[in-house]
């Protein structure tokens, strides 16, 4: 096991820690006595976990610690962190409606990921080679989802929460369509090669 992979596993271990702090903060908000320390512990835990994504990649590349296990577990860790953040903040509000991710957005994200994962499973079943490479649309989707999470956790009042939610929803839907089309293209190319 490489050091880079250990960092990735640490990110996975931090996911439930974030969830616990986030839910405890939500409960304190609902009692009318918000424990801001819990909110900041959740935020710090999330930031450390998110930052570890760049750190494990840097170590893997610069110290020749790339491994099949690392390539497999890293996107799983990223997805666990993102989904946990979105789901937790949609069902454990951090205040009035302004400080809660809309449940319909969480449903959209989950549906997109299930469809993409289902497509990958089908392509593997058909013995198609599926390169796991992020695209610009996938990266933009991640950035807009992270922005939405930060908007709620930091309680940004610059614009109503609806605006970052709609932006993240557009890119979530767009990236889902892109990856489905890409899957069909992989299958079509493989059939032509036979």
UniProtKB/TrEMBL annotation:
List the GO molecular function terms.
CDP-diacylglycerol-glycerol-3-phosphate 3-phosphatidyltransferase activity
Q: Does the keyword Transferase apply?
A: yes
Known catalytic reactions? a CDP-1,2-diacyl-sn-glycerol + sn-glycerol 3-phosphate = a 1,2-diacyl-sn-glycero-3-phospho-(1'-sn-glycero-3'-phosphate) + CMP + H(+)
Regions crossing the membrane:
38-55, 101-124, 136-154, 160-180
Q: Where in the cell is it found?
A: Membrane
- Class of this enzyme: transferase
This protein's major location comes to membrane
GO CC term (a single one)? membrane
Pfam families for the chain: CDP-OH_P_transf
What protein does this entry describe?
Answer: CDP-diacylglycerol--glycerol-3-phosphate 3-phosphatidyltransferase
Organism whose genome encodes this protein: Oceaniferula marina
**Lineage of origin:** Bacteria, Pseudomonadati, Verrucomicrobiota, Verrucomicrobiia, Verrucomicrobiales
């Amino acid at each position: 096991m490489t050091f880079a992979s250990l960092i990735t596993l640490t990110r996975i271990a931090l996911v439930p820690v974030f969830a616990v702090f986030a839910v405890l903060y939500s409960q304190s908000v609902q009692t009318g006595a918000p424990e801001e320390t819990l909110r900041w512990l959740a935020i710090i835990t999330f930031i450390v976990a998110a930052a570890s994504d760049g750190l494990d990649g840097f170590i893997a590349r610069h110290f020749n610690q790339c491994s099949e296990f690392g390539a497999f577990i890293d996107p799983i860790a990223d997805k666990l962190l993102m989904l946990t953040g979105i789901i937790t903040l949609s069902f454990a509000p951090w205040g009035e409606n302004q400080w809660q991710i809309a449940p319909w957005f969480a449903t959209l994200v989950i549906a997109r990921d299930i469809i993409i994962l289902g497509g990958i499973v089908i392509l593997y079943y058909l013995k198609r080679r599926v390169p796991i490479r992020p695209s610009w649309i996938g990266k933009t989707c991640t950035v807009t989802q992270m922005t939405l999470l930060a908007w709620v956790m930091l309680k940004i009042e610059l614009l109503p929460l609806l605006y970052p939610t709609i932006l993240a929803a557009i890119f979530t839907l767009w990236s889902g369509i892109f990856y489905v089309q890409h899957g069909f293209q992989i299958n079509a190319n493989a059939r032509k090669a036979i």
